[in-house]
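[job 4417] fold queue: 2 targets
>>> target A
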Amino acid sequence: MDGALGVTVALLSAASAEQTADPVAIAADASRPRLIEPLGQVVTRHLRDAILEGRLKAGARTRQEAVAQELGTSRIPVREALRQLENEGLVSLVPHSGARVAKFDHGEYTELYRIREELEPLAIAESAPRLTDGDIDTLRGLMLQIERTNDAGVWLDLDRRFHLASYAAAPMPRLLKLIEGFWNSTQQYRRAFYGAISARYDG
């Protein structure tokens, strides 16, 4: 497990245990803004990153007990994370079988890309006039990294970040959330495609 993630999970677990043991602390803390990310979101991000980066492959089984043990937490935030990832189309929850990373489906792939082709031109049209000099510098930096890398995994991550950053100035948060979700859902297809292309050229 990543060291920083382990520290975060440990701190969140400790804070949760302390609040559970002290009802007065819970009441006092309710009036203060929470500065620590909820544990369920930490687990969700950990699993989402593992899927998007290809560390969890399509069809791979994800056991709640194993994830909880790896992250040093209970099964409750893991269960919450898997439900969220199911909503995002990244995992499938099967009764009495557990969770599996979503498998490839040509029909779904085609549908997702057709939706993206409709939404993303709107996002860039709304975003482009509002990009600041700082935004453009960020995009330029990402483009330079894309041009310099020979690693397919790094290229895929940078390409995703570049596109989402180019849309980010659009004053349409619901649209941006939809687009990011569709990018997440298609990332494993893109990874498989570029992996096949790389293997063909390497061979």
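>>> target B
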Amino acid sequence: FNVANAGSGDLTWSVTDNQEWITTSPSSGTNYGSVNVSVSGNGLSTGNYSGTVTVSSNGGTGDVAVLMNVPADLPPVAVQLYEPTDITPSAMTLSWETSADTDFLSYKLYRGASATVDESSTLVTTITNRYTTEHIDGNLQDGTTYYYKLYVEDGAHQTTGSNVVSGTTLTEPGVWGSFATMAVDLKWISALTSIFVYAVGDSGKIYKWDGTSWTEEQSPTTERLSGVTIIAEDDIWISGEGGVWHYNGALWVQE
């Protein structure tokens, strides 16, 4: 509002208010001037508020009524959570859009074992910087599917959840081990089961794995063997420089 001098002399005036939520500027002046009045509902409950700004001067006193309504605090708007990226056997990266909530307090990222992940699930991280919109979730199990949901929290501790996304960690590669060292070079191996395995190689050597150890089997030849196929325990074929042999469960027969 404006203060004006309608008389012929100098007008000296000052401005006061009766509520903490009212701010005025300037607080005083001479003759003519504009007074800015602002209000703030921070920390106030929902409802209607009234106050008074008083202008006191050597020419008289005047009051200006100030009314304010503090609306109900609405929950924050949900943000979009994007599909996980940079997935490894033990980690994945989660990212999301920036919250535009004027009363932003934090992001809370939750992880679960199903699509019903919510605020009762595992809290992965709490981020209070509005512009930090990425987090790497580590120490995960390989070959496992994880579900995520991001909640935006406002100053009144109201939360709104995002969409649910999921990611499956990669399977950790296995480690090769050495079961045995053979006296000859092996050329081929075939397995019917994990406890019925045959390997063949130089000098007609045939070895059998029973799940515990390798044993050398009787061979029909001393020539190099380069192939073996197991159809059944009594139906095994080997081949090499000397020809093809078939094992019928009792003996090897050259075909």
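[job 4417] complete. Note on B: The CA atoms of residues 166 and 228 lie 44 Å apart.
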